[in-house]
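Hi R.,

As promised, here are both runs. First protein below:
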Amino acid sequence: MDFYVTLAEARTRADCVVLGLHEGEAPSTPGGALSTRTARELTDTLAAGDFAGRLGDTWLVPLAGRPSRVLLVGLGPRKNWSRRGYRKALAAAAQALTKSGVRDAQVHLTTISVPGVTAYYHARFVTEAIGNALYRIPDLKTGRKPRPPRLARVGVTVTRRVDLAAARRGVNHGTAVNEGARITRDLANLPANVCTPAYLGRYVQGIGRRYRKIRVRVLGPAEIRRLKMGSFLSVTRGSDEPPRLLVLEYRGGRRGRPPVTLIGKGVTFDTGGISLKDPPGMDEMKFDMTGAATVIGVICALASINAAVNVAGVVPACENMPSGRATKPGDIVTSMSGKTVEVLNTDAEGRLILCDAITYARRLRPEVVIDVATLTGACVVALGQHVSGLMSSDDALAAELEAAGRRAGDPCWRLPIAEEYADQLKSNFADLANVAGREGGAITAACFLWKFTDGLRWAHLDIAGTAYVSGAAKGSTGRPVPMLVDYCLNRD
C-alpha cells in the first residue's frame, strides 16, 4: 500500500475522493477536491435525499468527470461530532474503499476539524484505518482464495502547508503500527498446532535476521532450568511441547539508556491444566499468547521506522496442558526470585510465567517494565471489550500509558492495586497463593505480579477483553499495539 500526503487545494488525480457529510449539511469539499462541474453534479445527486449523513453510513457516487467516484461518509450531527465519531467514520470509509473497485483514493476527512486531533494523528488514523480494513486472516482453507482488494494508493490531505511534515510523520508511524498489528494478529490467529513455543522461537530468530538493530536470544528448557524459573516450568510440565524464553532487544535510542521492557504472556494454548476449562470456547485459548504477539509486533513496528528508543521484550512461551506430569492444585513451586508459590488453581497460569519473566527482566536493567497479558476473565467482566485493564504501582507511568491510549484511540482504564487485595493471596504453606477467590480477580492477579516488582517502575495491562473478538468475526484485534507504539514514540 502506497500512502502519500498532499494539500487539499491541489487538483486530485485519484479515482475516488472521500468526503464527509454531517446530517443536514452539504458535503465538505475543500480546495481542489472537485471541479466546479463535478461539485455541481454531486450537489444535484444529493438533492434527491438518498443520503442522510448518519454516522458511519457510506455511499459511493459515480460521476461523469474526474474523479470518477466520490465516497460520501456520514459524520452524524455536528453537535455530537467527536474523536470517537471521527474514528468510526474513518473505519467505515476504509471498509467501503476496500470493498469497492477503487485503486487510488484521496481522503479529505482529514481536513475536518476534530477536537484534540492534530495533523499528525489525522494522517496516522487514516493510515491505521486502511491497514485494518486491508488485513486478512492467514486462513488454512483449501478452497479458492478471494481476490485481494484493488486499493493500492491512498492520499491524505491537509489544508495548510505547515502541516505537511507532521502528516507525513503520521503516515510513517501509522504504517509502522499497521505492520506491528499485522504481525500480532497473524501470530495470534494461527492455530495452536502451528504456533507452538518452538514456532515462536524460530519466528523471532527470523526477526533478528531481518532487522539489524534487533538482537534475539531464544532459551530452551535446559537454559530455563538453569535460570531456576520454577514457576514458569510448573506451567509447562504437562505439555509435550518444550517451553521457550524469547528475549528481544531493539537498540535505536541513545547508547546506554535503559530500555523500556515489555513482557508478553506467551501461553500458546491454555486448557487450564488439571483445573480444566469448560469445553465451550476453549478453541479461543489459542489467543492466550496475544501478549507475546503484542510484544513482538511492537518491537518490529519500532524497528521498521528506526525509532529513537531502546526497547526490550521478554516472552515466556509454553502450553498449559493436563497430563500425569502436570502441576496439581496444592503443589508448591519456587520462582526465579526465590519466592514460593502455592498453586491453588492451575488455570491461573499466566501470572506464574510472568512473575519469572519479571525477575529475568531485571537483568536488562530496565527503565520501566510493562507486562501485557490476556490474564483474567474477571477483567472482561469488569471492563468488557472496549478498554484494556491497567494496574500499576507507579502513578506517573500509569498516567503516561493512559495518555498514550487516549492519543492512539486504544484506551485503557486504571484499576487499583493495594495491600488489602494482596492480603487475599496469603497462603498457609508458601509465600504466596496464585489465586485469591472471585472478588476483584483482575486486581488480585495484578497484585500477585506486583509482589515481584520491588524497585521497578512497573505496569500491568490485562488485555483479556480487547485482544480478540468472538463470534462470526472471530479473530485478533491487534490491540494494544497502537497504544504501546505511541507510548514508546513519545518517551522523553
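And here is the second one, sequence first, then its C-alpha cells:
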Amino acid sequence: MTDVFDQFNLRDRVAVVTGGSRGLGREMALGFAQAGASVVVASRKIDACERLAQEIYEATGRRALPVACHTGKWEDADLLFETVYGEFGAAHVLVNNAGSSPVYDTPSSVSEELFDRTIAVNLRGAFRMTSLFGERMAADGGGSIINISSIASVKPSVHEIPYAAAKAGLNTITTAFAHAFGPAVRVNAIVPGAFLTDVAAAWDMDAFARVAKRYDLKRGGDPAEIVGTALYLASDASSYVTGSLLHIDGGAR
C-alpha cells in the first residue's frame, strides 16, 4: 500500500525557487526544505538570499544555496542554471516565482522601459528558466516546474495591465511546456489571489477589506497558505497533474 504522506516527501531532491527570499517564495523555500529538499534561493538581492539560506539550514538542517539572479536578464537565468547543476548535479523542482507589478498613473503613462521590464521579469525570465531546466530534467528522467501566475491573468484591472498580460502569457507557456516536456516533466501553474505578503504593506487595507467581503473566504491569504499547494505540485502527490492552472484565491469573485 502506498504511504500517502510519503508522496509529499522531497528527500534527496533539489528545489530551485526564484524570487525566493521574500513573500510567497520565502514560504515555499522553507516548506520544501521542511519536506526534505535541498533548496536554491534565488533573487536579485544576495544578502536577503543569504539570510534566508541560513534560516533554512538552522530550522531544517537542509542545505540552502543563495544565488543572486535577476530573472529578467537572460544571462542571469543561464548563470543560475549553470550554478545549480555545478553545485548539485541535478534539479528536481523549479518554481518560477519572481515577479514585479510596477505602479503607474494611467495606461498612456506606461513607458516602453516599464512595459519591457514587466514582461521580462514576469514572462521572459520564466520562459528561459523553464526552457533550460525543463530540457535537462527531461533528459535526466523527470521533474516538476511550477509557475506562479496571478489572478490578474484572468481578472485584470486597469492598474496592472502589463503585469496581467505577462501573467496571461505565463499561463499559456505553462500549457505549452507541459506538452513539450511530457511525459517526464510536469509543468503547472499556481494562480494566486490576494496574499498578504510584505507587498501588502503599501495597500489601502480599508479598501481591501471591502473588496475581500466579496470573496467566499472573506479575507486575503496568509503567505504560508501557498505551501500546501506548492508542495502538492512539487511532489509525487500530483504525479498525474500537468498543464494545470490551480487557483488559490479564497473564492475571489
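A quick note on the second one: The radius of gyration is 17 Å. Let me know what you think.

Best,
J.
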